[in-house]
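Technical annex, item 7. During the second reporting period the consortium partners agreed on a shared format for inverse folding records so that results from different sites could be compared directly. Each record opens with the tokenized structure and is followed by the designed sequence. A conforming record, contributed by the partner at site C, is shown below for reference.
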């Protein structure tokens, strides 16, 4: 039993090391050790094993680490059959071409939202939205959509979590979510990032369950509330169409 527990801990530690690279592409061993809370000697041994298996690559000149090619090899075998990031991309591109603003797709992952797909605006000044970015659920148009249309138990669990900031009133936030459910969309202006604005709408599975949040974002100077009001019918139509594509 003790051997089994030790093996499980080793796997958890290895996965924690790999997950460090969700927040950086090029890390020193000391940075990794600090993030996972392990002694450098332990991290060094685990990095050596991951490197041997091809999951980690080390730059000998700088002695820094990055994800290895085995990660990309695995990713090529992900199923595209029901992956919304793949299925909805053509409609996202069509929406981007119509509105000429950045279009993103978000899903809820625990107490965060995760950007799983994005197509960038062609404008010189635009909202850059890197895929894989993780953001909190208590701020931003997409976060509010993901909570507003989530199951009540899921919504309450997120808002009761220790990570929920004391500065965000649960009562006022719930009132915002009720208004978003009534309207069918959410907006935000410089809530999470200075100079940025966004409008988001829910995408529902054919079963009626929430699948994702569709967002259009751009500079607040261009994506004004008046401009958002023009975009909302177009966005919601795209969101309805996307809902017919996901299972």
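Designed sequence (site C submission):
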């Amino acid at each position: 039993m003790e051997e089994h527990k030790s093996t499980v801990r080793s796997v958890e530690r290895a996965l924690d090391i790999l997950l460090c690279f969700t927040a950086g592409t090029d890390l020193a061993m000391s940075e990794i050790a600090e993030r996972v809370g392990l002694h450098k000697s332990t991290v060094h041994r685990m990095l050596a094993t991951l490197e041997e298996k091809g999951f980690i690559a080390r730059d000998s000149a700088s002695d820094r680490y990055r994800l290895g090619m085995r990660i990309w090899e695995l990713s090529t075998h992900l199923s595209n059959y029901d992956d919304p990031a793949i299925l909805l991309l053509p409609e996202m591109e069509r929406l981007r071409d119509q509105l000429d603003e950045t279009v993103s797709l978000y899903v809820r992952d625990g107490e965060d939202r995760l950007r799983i797909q994005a197509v960038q605006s062609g404008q010189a000044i635009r909202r850059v939205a890197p895929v894989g970015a993780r953001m909190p659920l208590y701020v931003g148009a997409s976060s509010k959509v993901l909570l507003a249309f989530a199951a009540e138990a899921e919504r309450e669990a997120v808002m009761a979590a220790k990570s929920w900031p004391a500065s965000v009133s649960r009562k006022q936030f719930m009132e915002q979510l009720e208004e978003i459910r009534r309207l069918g969309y959410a907006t935000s202006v410089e809530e999470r990032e200075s100079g940025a604005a966004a409008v988001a709408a829910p995408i529902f599975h054919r079963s009626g369950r929430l699948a994702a949040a569709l967002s259009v974002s751009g500079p607040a100077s261009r994506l004004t509330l008046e401009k958002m009001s023009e975009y909302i019918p177009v966005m919601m139509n795209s969101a309805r169409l996307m809902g017919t594509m996901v299972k």
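The chain has two domains: 2-74, 84-243. The domain at 2-74 is CATH 1.10.10.10 (Arc Repressor Mutant, subunit A). All partners now use this format for quarterly exchanges.
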